Amino acid sequence: MTDHPSLQPYADAWTHSIEAISELVTPLVEGEWNHATECPGWSVRDVVSHIIGSECEMLGDPRPIHSLPRDLFHLKDDLSRRIEVQVDVRRCHTAPEMTSELEYTIIRRSRQLRNEKRDPSTKVTTPLGVEMTLERALRTRAFDVWVHEQDLRRALGKPGNLDSPGAYVARDVLLEGLPKVVAKDAGAPPNTAVVFDVSGPVEFMRTVRVDGEGRGTVDGSVSLGPAVTVATDWETYLRLACGRVRPSAVRDDVKIEGDRELADAILAHFSVTP
């Protein structure tokens, strides 16, 4: 247990997801580590490398000194290049090396979380190179690890844990991005309401309201006569919001009612993750 109750739910969600990842990848044969995931340019090995590297940085380990190849065309900006260093440095690692490092990293991070005595408001530097409070950083790690657990499950054809503790952390993180998607990115007119109706293992309905000044907010109240209603299942919502698929690829899984042009603009800007 950490010293601060506000951190415990994120530590628990992180633990559940990272242990599930370990169980998923430990029995894999060498070739299965090369299966492509929905993360552009990343294999199963690359996703696990990213997780290991991120947790090592949270432990305070120095970042690897490593020059990236020039032919990694999925890298679009400085942030993606920063993230890729921890991935590319492990691309030559064997399956036993990967599982051993993952197991050791989980042991170290679990011990750190159990002994965490810092105040939740303490500022820490995250693997993305930005500073945030310890509480938000742990929330972000719980979110990231659960999302990547789902990436691995889809790549390996082993679905599960769509309603685990990390799923609810992910729901809340993704919902925070909705007002910007609707009001700013999609340009919904002032005094507009847009409803998102999500079914499945994690079920919820939320309304984004754009006020007269063009500012968006999200709440759980029902809106009468919204401009748009977007209905889909939880896994499709997750994949869209995390940029794993384009809207055209899951069109049959998303039901739209109302202003189709606005709905298309919302879906075009739906990805809220880096």
UniProtKB/TrEMBL annotation:
<dbReference type="Pfam" id="PF07398">
    <property type="entry name" value="MDMPI_C"/>
</dbReference>
<protein>
    <submittedName>
        <fullName>Maleylpyruvate isomerase family mycothiol-dependent enzyme</fullName>
    </submittedName>
</protein>
<dbReference type="GO" id="GO:0046872">
    <property type="term" value="F:metal ion binding"/>
</dbReference>
<keyword id="KW-0670">Pyruvate</keyword>
<dbReference type="InterPro" id="IPR010872">
    <property type="entry name" value="MDMPI_C-term_domain"/>
</dbReference>
<keyword id="KW-0413">Isomerase</keyword>
<dbReference type="Pfam" id="PF11716">
    <property type="entry name" value="MDMPI_N"/>
</dbReference>
<dbReference type="InterPro" id="IPR034660">
    <property type="entry name" value="DinB/YfiT-like"/>
</dbReference>
<feature type="domain" description="MDMPI C-terminal">
    <location>
        <begin position="169"/>
        <end position="264"/>
    </location>
</feature>
<feature type="domain" description="Mycothiol-dependent maleylpyruvate isomerase metal-binding">
    <location>
        <begin position="15"/>
        <end position="153"/>
    </location>
</feature>
<dbReference type="InterPro" id="IPR024344">
    <property type="entry name" value="MDMPI_metal-binding"/>
</dbReference>
<dbReference type="InterPro" id="IPR017517">
    <property type="entry name" value="Maleyloyr_isom"/>
</dbReference>
<dbReference type="GO" id="GO:0016853">
    <property type="term" value="F:isomerase activity"/>
</dbReference>
